[in-house]
């Protein structure tokens, strides 16, 4: 329900011209559409100067009493409303008149919903709800833009991590000079092992960076046992001992005992 004290404290304003030389009537020649059998004029027309209606190929005649025929109209000179026969609904007509002014009603005095004779919503409250809805929508839009901004930043960070950590292994070369000659136009992530040193180099976009000793040259894991391991991809050293994991590394010198030897050039 609307705030009754507010309704009665919100005044109706009026603008009334005198029709004198200093304050003459305003001449109007405007187009209005007939809706619900009537056309609302911009201002209140002067009764003495009457109203001229034209359009739709008819000769319109004003009446004050009686039934409205197809080409008749009536004028409420108090409120600036022109009435027509229902057959003229939706038509656009031209209205020529001298305006005396108008009454201006506040939004709190114009109802948009009612329950019987009880006003439940006014134009003022409807406008306020629309304003708040617009503000909330704009706020949601800004939050959405902010989320999109952070999402793009996070995606960019992830892409940078991938770009800076991925490895694309390429065939080995013998020396560092061979690396430069074999891959003159490297791409980020290219990783190559140098046979001479066993070092892995990765191109970071600017230089070949030493990232580690390649597992291929640092040694191998093997299983030493008297039974065959379940994993067929495991290197098996058959011994008379219980199963154990050992590490075999390359060496330039042969071992003193009869062990596996990866000879390093």
Can you describe what's shown?
Among the domains are: 82 residues, no CATH class; 49 residues, YefM-like fold; 45 residues, no CATH class. β10 and β11 form a beta hairpin. The protein is rod-shaped. The mean pLDDT is 81. The strands form seven sheets. A four-stranded mixed beta sheet has the order 3-7-6-5, with no helix packed on it. A four-stranded mixed beta sheet has the order 12-13-14-15. It is of the alpha+beta class and 265 residues long.
Q: Stretches where pLDDT falls below 50 for ≥5 residues?
A: none
Structural class: alpha+beta
- What share of residues are in beta strands? 25-35%
Strand order of the largest sheet: 3-7-6-5
Helix and strand pattern: HEEEEEEEEEEEHEHEEEHEEEEE
Distance, first to last CA: 96 Å
User: What's the count of strands?
Assistant: 20
> What is the number of helices?
4
Globular, elongated, flat, extended or rod-shaped: what is the shape?
A: rod-shaped
Biggest sheet layout: 4 strands, mixed
Can you give the helix content as a percent range?
Answer: 10-25%
- Average residue-wise pLDDT: 81
Specify Rg, calculated over alpha carbons. 47 Å
Quick synopsis:
This protein is α+β, with helices and mostly antiparallel strands. It contains 4 helices and 20 strands. The model has no long low-confidence stretch (mean pLDDT 81).
